[in-house]
Amino acid sequence: MPPRLLLVAPPNSYRTAAYLAAARQQHVDVLVASEGRHSLVSEVAGGLHIDLSDPGAVDTLLQASHERPFSGVVATDDATVELASHVAMQLGLPHNPPQAARCSRRKDLSRQALADADAGVPDFRVIDLGLPLAQQLGVLPFPCVIKPLTLSGSRGVIRVDSMEEALSACTRVQSILARESLHDPFAASRLLMERYVPGPEVALEGLLMRGKLQVLAVFDKPDPLEGPYFEETYYIMPSRHAPAVQQAVSACVQAACRGLGLLEGPVHAEVRIAREGCVIMEVASRTIGGECARLLSTGTGHSLEALVIAHATGQRLDCERPVDAAGVLMIPIPRAGILRRIEGIPAARAVPCIEDISIAVREGYELVPLPEGASYLGFIFARAPTPAAAEAALRAAFAELNIVVAPLLRLQNGSAST
Questions:
Q1: What is the helix (H) or strand (E) element at residue 164, kind and residue range?
Q2: 184 and 141 share a domain?
Q3: What is the pLDDT of residues 27-67, one digit of tens each?
Q4: How far is CA 278 from CA 134, 273, 288, 323, in A?
Q5: Contacts of 144 (CB under 8 A, 6+ apart)
Q6: Element (H, E) at 134
Q7: Which of the listed residues 145, 174, 195 is the one where a domain comes to its end?
Q8: Contact assessment for residue 190 and residue 126, using Cβ atoms and an 8 Å cutoff
Q9: Pick from 179, 195, 211: which residue ends a domain?
């Protein structure tokens, strides 16, 4: 019998398809546990349908294992890592302790655990939206960053340089949370305020095995992320930072995993390289978001999802040494409105070293930029002999695009307004 994987996924996860493709290549059977009863993905629609917020979901998944045992359990997104860890623990499969998984998806818990472990995090405070804000916001010196406790992809993350900006940001993020219908009342009514840390930022993708971190890639982010919003654009690998800096980044992430209690599976970390040393921005017990995971095949010879599945099911995949550089541009949304068309795609594809352009938003759909937005227009991928050449190719391809956005008309009291 082939290995059987339990894939726990939110109904709208864009990582599910990549995991299913990797499982087919490895001849691994997959049972998808999700709320997506009406999904267009056959494996999701035909999988096990559960309420991911129901405490009884663990028993339902354990019963499915009794019918045919699982060889591994993988969570696709932050929202499912805690549930997956409970199931894997009960089955004696590789897992993170449930409390560690919970900390990795809640920024306030993560910050406190890392601060207790002296693992290098910025000064922070939890802001209660139900209490007077000015006194709470005056504890840390400006500039600071206001962010939600649970959202990902830089949603609701705002730099503030004054009390006036901080009060405005809290109101704005509170309205974002109100539209999310969060199941966690605490996360729905609190924000995190933390000291702004200047310096370049990198992302690390890794895999934990019995607590030891295997670094799969360190990505440079050549565009400065200084605010007021923190939209990520270019990811370039391998990193051009000095080997000693990259070693410090890896050691910082390893210490953070230890501080959180993470032991097994994928790790996605964001690290600022500050004057005082490396500072952890995020450590998540899941893979990188979007289609950026495609870059890992350049650095390892395998897709990131294939590596995660192999680890979860007790298989071994040997990683290759990278011979090229690669990069991705997460195409930013220029402004709010309705996408009419994207011109210049053929010219962008013709730029040397460009491998692929993937547009994720259809014409006629509404565009919502950060900090409210939750998606990108699409992705441009490059592969080149050097990191500098990969970055140059991405910038040249992006310069060929003309993104045409029409104003969004809304009806208010019987009349149209933008």
A1: helix 163-180
A2: yes
A3: 999 999 998 666 656 777 778 999 988 989 999 999 999 98
A4: 31, 5, 20, 28
A5: 159, 160, 166, 193, 194, 195, 196
A6: helix 133-137
A7: 195
A8: yes
A9: 195
Q: Which domain holds residue 167?
A: 123-195
- CB-based contact 245:396 (threshold 8 Å): no
Specify if 108 maps to a domain.
Answer: no
Residue 112 lies in a domain: no
Strands 72-75, 4-8: parallel, antiparallel or unpaired by DSSP?
Answer: parallel
Percent helix / strand / coil, the chain, rounded to 5: 35, 30, 40
In this prediction, residue 289 carries a pLDDT of 76
At residue 412, the pLDDT reads 59
Nearest CA among 369, 368, 344, 348 for reference residue 357: 348
Provide the CB-side half-sphere exposure for 179 (13 A, CA). 11
- pTM of the complete model: 0.93
Q: How far is CA 55 from the centre of its chain?
A: 25
Please list the residues that pair with 325 across neighbouring strands.
Answer: 384
CATH number reported for the structural domain that contains residue 406 in this entry: 3.30.470.20
Report residue 306: phi and psi, to 5°: -65, -40
Does residue 45 sit within a domain? yes
- Between CA 416 and CA 418 the distance in angstroms is 7
Structurally, the chain folds into a number of domains equal to 3
Q: What is the rounded radius of gyration, in angstroms, for the C-alpha atoms of the chain?
A: 21
Mean pLDDT of 138-157: 94
**How far is it, in rounded angstroms, from Cα 315 to Cα 361?**
36
